[in-house]
Write a structure and sequence with these properties.
single chain; nine-stranded antiparallel sheet; three-stranded antiparallel sheet; about 30% helix; globular; 8 helices; alpha+beta
């Protein structure tokens, strides 16, 4: 693990797209750049492609349509979605390929991370949304202990074509993995339609096809919200995915002490980090790992990432100390 160093910044803001150096394929400067942004999956999704106008339009429309299909399956708020019905009924017979893959992959990352990634925390999220943060520490602890019996990834059972909860009252949330899956599916669509240079960004969960058409890699900057002219780090990627989990966007209470990334072991908001950025092979992977590493904290998080092939991370803890995995330097813009 690289020795951590202090940074003179207050908070982390969001992922932004920039420019920089290197290449993954021959340049194709004659291709035109096309970009579209739409509202999907409770965020804004941007698709950038380099192509001719007709192909670009068809490919981007198809990519957005595929992501819309994933949203209709994975939303726990849409009463017509499979995820909503799973939560309501406690089981699903013959789930779609999309939902089955989302749950199977979620369980894989739960096991890989020792339970730090857990899609069954929805009852805890509901508890905090309903105003648990207003109550005394004793009341909070009591209600969390009561709710924890409905939490546990290992209580999701799969038998043949049926998925069911092992305990009545359980519910899932796919917020830590569904956007990543949708981005991967959009990338597949773009590739199938002949797009050779592209980026898909779903609220900071990003994946790329090759570099930009001019041979430059895609660059992703972590900005300092206190001074938007500053960025904390700039990552250069080609044919890679990147995602960041942070506690600076969604809070339950005005004091911003209770946020939406819950530690499945304690029932409280994870409190060791303000940000965890993961770079890897696909967006579903980095989406899930970013959540897990954020909850695990720097020491355990770095240990996990160092054990995985072709995965790197950049972590900022609550003291604004940064940590990076041993291979991250090849993705950092050093200018």
């Amino acid at each position: 693990m690289r020795k951590p160093y202090k940074i003179a910044t207050a908070f982390l803001m969001l992922l932004m797209i920039a420019l920089s150096t290197s290449a993954c394929a021959a340049k194709a400067p004659e291709l035109e750049k096309f970009e579209d942004t739409r509202s999907l999956m409770d965020t804004y999704v941007t698709v950038i492609v380099y192509s001719d106008e007709e192909t670009a339009g068809e490919a981007m429309n198809a990519a957005f349509a595929r992501m819309g299909e994933v949203e209709k399956v994975a939303s726990i708020f849409d009463q017509k979605s499979e995820a909503f019905k799973f939560n309501q009924n406690g089981y699903l017979d013959e789930p779609s390929n999309d939902l089955f893959k989302l749950i199977i992959t979620s369980l894989y990352y739960s096991k890989l991370t020792g339970g730090y990634f857990d899609i069954t925390i929805q009852p805890l999220l509901d508890l905090w949304k309903e105003g648990l943060w207003k109550e005394s520490p004793e009341s909070q602890q009591s209600k969390i202990e009561e709710t924890m019996k409905f939490v546990g990834w290992d209580k999701i059972n799969i038998e043949g074509d049926k998925i069911y909860f092992g305990t009545d009252g359980m519910e899932i949330t796919l917020g830590g993995i569904a956007k990543g899956y949708a981005v991967d599916e959009a990338i597949k669509i773009l590739r199938s339609m002949g797009i050779e240079y592209a980026l898909v960004n779903a609220g900071g969960d990003m994946s790329t096809i090759c570099s930009r058409a001019d041979g430059e890699p895609w660059s992703v900057a972590l900005e300092n919200p206190d001074d938007t002219s500053q960025c904390l780090a700039t990552f250069e990627i080609s044919d890679k995915s990147i995602a960041t989990s942070g506690n600076y966007e969604r809070y339950f209470n005005p004091e911003k002490t209770a946020h939406h990334i819950i530690d499945p072991e304690t029932g409280y908001s994870a409190n060791e980090c303000i940000s965890a950025t993961i770079i890897g092979e696909n967006c579903m992977q980095v989406d899930a790992l970013a959540t897990a590493v954020f909850v695990m904290g720097p020491e355990k998080g770095i240990g996990l990432i160092e054990s995985l092939p072709d995965v790197e991370c950049f972590i900022i803890d609550v003291e604004r100390t940064t940590y990076s995995s041993s291979g991250l330097s090849r993705y950092l813009n050093k200018e």
